[in-house]
Design brief:
Layout (H helix, E strand, L loop, with lengths): L7 E3 L6 E11 L2 E5 L5 E6 L11 E7 L2 E7 L5 E5 L4 E6 L3 E7 L6 H13 L3 E7 L4 H10 L1 H5 L3 E4 L6 H12 L3 E5 L6 H8 L3 H12 L10 E4 L7 E4 L16 H4 L1 H7 L32 H18 L2
Parallel strand pairs: 4-6, 9-10, 9-12, 10-11, 12-14
Antiparallel strand pairs: 1-2, 2-3, 2-5, 3-4, 5-6, 7-8, 13-14
Length: about 325
Amino acid sequence: MAKATGSTRRGTDGNKDLRDGLVVASHGRHCLVETPEGERLICRPRGKKSQAVVGDRVRWQPTEDEGTIESVAERTNLFYRQDEVRTKSFAANLDQVLILVAAEPEFSETQLARALIAAAAERIQPIIALNKSDVVVPFERAWARLAPYRRMHHGVLPLSLKASPDVDRASLLKLMAGKTTLVLGPSGAGKSTLTNLLVPGATAATSEISQALNSGKHTTTSTTWYWVDAARTTALIDSPGFQEFGLQHLDPMQLAHLMPDIADHAKGCKFYNCTHLHEPGCGVIAQVDAPGHPGAINASRYRIYTELFAELSRRRHP
């Protein structure tokens, strides 16, 4: 990694020359920081705990051929998940999250819903992309499953990353232009294909970054920032696949406000503190679709809501 110069400002204590930087990768206590001039170097946080994540704007101080992160600028948002054991941060200061799922293998609607809720909690714009439109029958089935999300005005983008890469590249670049986008999705959805389509050579770059951060060990970094354009105005952040997406940082009473289809009808509830589980005069329950009782809220979506409400309630009332 190149030794960076970067723009310099006098620190608040008058003795430190602090420089601006952007965290573009991290692993453990090591971060890869990019200067405004585009140079990159390894930095470590001052103190015992690392607080910087990919997407953070930081102030750092040179220390021989590396650097020390002295402070992290205030974030506009932080996209993360939390289970009962730990918190996993993906990235900060995002404009949007692109959630990539595929026609096959069949995607988990619950995991999709969890990611959308996490994005809503941080006021980050979500985009759903459904890959493998060339696999006709599974794609039609998956597209039908996403009908409730299209009705919620979530953008759902059909893709065929291997069959029509040029068309898909143009569509994706239009959506991402001038923005910072985190790409999220389960293994097998085509995330690596998408990243390499938009950032040729991304795989090789990831290998180089991983080796630098891990002293030669071939360990994949948690998330990695790529510039899509030479002018460095459009950014893609690649993230590892996940099996679980915990929402333990949320209160169960927040859920309804973070699910647009539930929120639309929660306004019609008789009680202001309605849980939408059993109360009389509930505007949500009245709109759940069921045989012989057509409603505006998809039954699968309501089931996800009730399961998440129970899960988050158990944490607070063991």
